[in-house]
Amino acid sequence: MKKIIVKLIPAFLTIVLLLLANAAISQPRGVLEVLGGVERDNKPLTKASIKIFIDGAVAESHTPNVLGRFEFYLQYDKVYIVEFTGPDLIKKRIVFDTKLPDRASRRTYREFLFTVDLFQYVTAIDLSFFDEELVRIEYNESKGEFAYAESETQARLRRAAELKRLVEEYLNKKKHYDRLILQADNQFNAEELRAARESYIAASAIFPDEPYPPERIKIIDDLLARRDSRERKIRDLMIAAEKLIEEGKFDEAEALMDEALVVDPGARSQIDFLKQRTIQYKQLTGNYNALIAEADKAFDGSLWRRALDIYKQALEIRPTEEHPLKRVDEINRILTEFWENERKYNAAIEKADNFYRVLDYQNALTFYKEAVTYKPDEKHPRDRIDTINRHLFSVQQQEEQYNKFIAEGEKQFNEKDYAKSLESFRQASGLKPSEQYPKDKIDLITRLIRELADAKRRYDRAIEEGDNAFKVNRYANALVSYRTASEILPDEEYPREMLAKINQLLMDKAEIDAKYKEYIDKGDRAFQMKEYAVAKTNYQEALSLKSAERYPAQKIAEIDDILAKLDVNQRYEAAIKDADQRFNQKEYNDALPYYQEAARIKPLEAYPRNRINEINDILKRLQDVDNQYNNTIAFADRAFENREYSKAKESYQRALGLKPNEAYPKDKISQIDQIMGDLAKEESYSKAIRDGDNAFNSGNFQQAITKYKEALAIRPNEPYPSGKISECERLIKEGQELERKYTEAIAQGDRNFNNKSWAAAKNFYQTALELKPSESYPKSRIDEINILLAQQMSVDTQYQSILTEAGDAFTNNAYARAITLYESALQLKPEERFPKEQIEMINALIAEQRRIENDYKEAIANADKFFLSRAYERAREFYVTASELKPSEEYPKNRIVEVDRILARQKGVEQTYKDAIAEADKLFNQKNYIRSRDAYRRALEVKPGGAYPRNRITEIERILSSQSGESANYAAAIELGDRYLRERQLYRARDAYQEALSMRPSEAYPQRKIIEINELIAKSTDMEAFYNRGFMDVSNVREVIANNVEKRYYFVPFERRRTGSYLMAKGENLSGKNLRLFINYGKDQTKYGGFAVSIGGDSGVQELRIEISSQRRWVSDDCNWISIYPQGGDLEILQVQIYFGTQ
């Protein structure tokens, strides 16, 4: 493909044309002189080829000079095609039509000076455009000179410029592509396959159709898969071989190592290390098997601590061997259970003994039995259990009889059989005179019996008084007596029954008295009004209630006398008169007794009987009307309550027809008429409001005002329609203002749109749309502007999109693709610094990743090499380095854990070995050869391969064999004295040293030891001074106790003031971090117990107080040593003291 840059007078064109004035220089006459230059990338191009064609044949050929300039002359009346080209460059063809019209001057025209810019031809872009003429130059009559043919020149020049831009873009991509391919090829050749793969992927992203990157990626994937498979297989084989070595299967391990060598011959150094380890394991296997056999024997004999020590030695040889690991865990569990059972046993025994001392045999028996569960073979708790059982058996029968009497006494007491209950408790008290409970019960029952006898006497007296009062109807007195009796004996039924009976009698009498009084009062009023018939009737009713009363009988007799004295006709007329008067007044109930009296006076008269019948009919009809009236009113009331006003009004009107004079239905009818009128108004009002609201919501504010005014006419004082009218008027005014603003915003938007001020126009249209969101015109204008702005912002959008994609690639560590994208962004905006800075940073990150990968591989290789050679400290350093380089990798982390476990075991073994050697050397220098030999043997047990202790044992055995029998006895005595002295058995130690001194009187060592012991005895015998002082110095020597090393301090046992005693130690934590201290105590070679405490990492001297008397064995046994064992760092001890307790 070829890319052309043609420079023209307009800045955006590719050919520059200068019209020159006629110059008087030497040239052929009557020709068109053409001057110019050829450039490539703004530099003169000297190797260009210039060919001039006439009628398809080459007429002339030219080459630019060293400055890239050219000059040629063209005859008139011809058509020339001038072709500019160069090696691998595009062609540019310019047509010169030199035909002159007849009127034109035939002078020489020296008028063209132009530069032809050629660019590289690439096949990936269609450049067939340049196979045709680029521009045509011909004589322009209007200008009187040669000029461009204007018809298509500008369009062709723009097309040429676009093609050049495409070629430049392609070449930039090609350059970056080639650089990535070269980088990837170099990485591939250097076997940096993963980095090469990333580079090929980045290259393929530039030219996805290029086959080369995908082919290389496929090759790399195959190589990586094979390499990963090979590495996995080598690692699996080495791990399996290492496991077989640890299991002692050396032949199988060597076969796997040979197989690994076939898979990867480059792993020879690693395999050689493993083979060397195999040799070492073979040497250690014999020792391992012997240790396991000895440990198993100790385990089977329940010698737990010895077995534990030997299994740990075996684990130093084979750290991952399952059998010793399981046995160590099992022994630790057994020992933990043992000490836990020991603790629980001691606690149970202490409680049991305390209960036993205070004769609490049941609780004592419980805790002795609990102690036996922890130590079944212990004699003490079993003996105590037998003693308690015998004692309990002897008292069991007595206890059973006692409990029987108590149970019977309680039962009889609850049944209130106090006499029998008293006897039962007396028998129980006789069996256990010291028991207070039966005595208390006897006192209580005796008191109750006395109180009950007194209560019975008072009860009988009250009952007698109540019965006497009841017989003579003195109910009030009777009530008092029966209540007193019931209070004395609440359970008795008789007084409660009598109280109920009297209360009922009193209640009936009150009702009779009330009715009696009512009839007497009516009779008296009628008598005074001389209504003798009514009066007599009421007196007769009163007499029926109280027949014994004299007053009503007397009044009846008096009325009969009065009536007897009156004339029959008079009485009859008087009765008829009173009856008719009441009848005419429609007082039918009052008239009826008078008609009845008249009928009694003259039984044969029909008139009073007819009136009586008539009244009964009237009363019956009135009753029917009342019933119908009441039912109708009730129905109307229910309808009214349910707001069924039409039904209610109809029912009230029917009731009014039944009783026209009744005011209630009239009032209700008026009320309903008022309500129905109000409801009609309410409906009209509500309809007007609804219509107004609908018009308001649809924006028809003028119609809304009309409806709201109709509502206001119905309810002038209602605020709602008034408020809505004001709101409508306001909205009408606001709508007019909104229309004005909308029209103004549209006009402004149109003006800016026509002026192509898109952003300003968009703002005005958005303002108009906010004013009228439903209008389509501003919305369509905004859409149109958005399209125009989007076209303007395409470059920015593309740039930001590329940056975003590049940022994602960077975040996902796809650095090669990120670089490609940032370079594409730079092509869009070359002046931007951000893509350049990102490219620089990514290149630095890629270099750093490559360095980390190489350092990681190197660290893992070194770590594996040192691990296989058992140089665990060095291996750990490299594994830590690898893990820091790649924190997400699991392999180095797992190896660090494994190395730490091995080193922890080695450290314990190493310290034990060093302690044994130090002790042995010390004893050897003291010529205590027998004990020294034992210490060297212990060291040899820890490290079976140690040459030094083995040589020393040989030397000691040689010395001992050369010594006489007397020397051996001397050495044995010294060894015994040393042991007793170490155990603080001072008298025995002194005897042993004296025995040794008797054998060799000139020896200084036993003499010095005897003096030392005497001083110790002198001090220990003066314990009273210690007690008075309150504490004992165990050590005032400033010394450092190393991490994981136990330091033991001996002291003279003290028999008194152990309870409440405590240990006080002063020291300084040298590690600067938190430590765990294990404080143990015991006697001679036996450990009785201990504590685990923590101390902080603060600098300076710290005091530690241990409440050691809280442990039973410290108080109960004659302890003569304590020890301090720091874990986690070194500890400097300044002073150790024991402070005595109170008893």
Structure description:
The radius of gyration is 66 Å and the shape is flat. Among the domains are: 5-167, Immunoglobulin-like (Sandwich), CATH 2.60.40.10; 191-299, no CATH class; 509-609, Alpha Horseshoe (Serine Threonine Protein Phosphatase 5, Tetratricopeptide repeat), CATH 1.25.40; 795-863, Serine Threonine Protein Phosphatase 5, Tetratricopeptide repeat (Alpha Horseshoe); 965-1021, no CATH class; 1022-1143, Sandwich (Jelly Rolls), CATH 2.60.120. It is built from 36 helices and 20 strands. Helix 26 (815-828) packs antiparallel against helix 27 (833-868) and helix 27 runs antiparallel to helix 28. 67% of the residues lie in helices and 11% in strands. Mean pLDDT is 81; it is low at 1-28. The strands form four sheets. It has a six-stranded mixed beta sheet with strand order 5-4-7-8-10-11. Strands 1, 2, 3, 6 and 9 form a five-stranded mixed beta sheet that branches. Strands 12, 13, 15, 18 and 20 form a five-stranded antiparallel beta sheet that branches. By secondary structure, the chain is α+β, with helices and mostly antiparallel strands.
Describe the structure using short key phrases.
1143 residues, alpha+beta, Immunoglobulin-like, Serine Threonine Protein Phosphatase 5, Tetratricopeptide repeat, 6-stranded mixed beta sheet, 5-stranded mixed beta sheet, 36 helices, 20 strands, disordered N terminus
User: How many beta-strand segments?
Assistant: 20
Distance between the termini: 111 Å
Radius of gyration: 66 Å
Global outline: flat
Sheet having the most strands: 6 strands, mixed
- Quickly count the helices: 36
